[in-house]
Design goal:
Length: 86
Amino acid sequence: MNKKINNLSLADLKTGDVFKIIDFDKSCGNFKYRLQDLGIHKGQMGQILNKTLFGPVEFEIDGRKIAIGRGMSKKIFVKKFNCPIL
């Protein structure tokens, strides 16, 4: 896993947390392209809308609501911010 020190994955965040995407796990070659098809890119800011113990992680980026599985969310590395944007 290419997780960098002090970086969190999208799966580590809680409902309401604000984040900026900084990197993706590079172990799966097609993963980056699957995210691009969903409109998810490095540098984007977003906010977690819903994250429960089980089920998908729901978040908003650029006014779009997106839900992805936990496995995918563990491969998206983010920087957490303390201010709400929505």
